[in-house]
Amino acid sequence: MSSSQSEQHIIDTLVGQYKNLPGGLLPLLHAVQAEIGYVPDSAVMTIAKGLNLSRAEVHGVISFYHDFKTHPVGRNRVQICRSEACQSMGSRQLESYAKQRLGIDYHQTTDDGHISLEPVYCLGNCACSPSVRVNDKVFARVDQHRFDELIADLGGSQ
Length: 158
Known about the structure:
Number of strands: 5
Largest sheet: 5 strands, mixed
Shape: elongated
């Protein structure tokens, strides 16, 4: 079975599981992303048909929630807070450093697929700015040296 056939099989199976659940679109989208790593564009029509929704409704939900990805992302997500508190404590300099260090911009993934870099607009850690989230863990008072440590802890070729 090819990768796209395998993805389609996963999507078909998940649609079958969620189609009768009231308000099943969000749980279904989360399940697809958990299984495949993102919500492929090719899934929109299948999901819409299965849940008796329009493609626009499904696409609107995917595009509204920033956590849904429509393309493959890195095995590790590194998010730098861009809120005012973090900016006042150096996050702009940190983001410039991170982009240079990783060789990518926001919404991009390193060539080896190891790290995706994303902006985030508040991690709720304002008193300890600047903050960075690596996967599901938030780190406080991150400077260039600490950023390098966090990246090194992820392993990979970075």
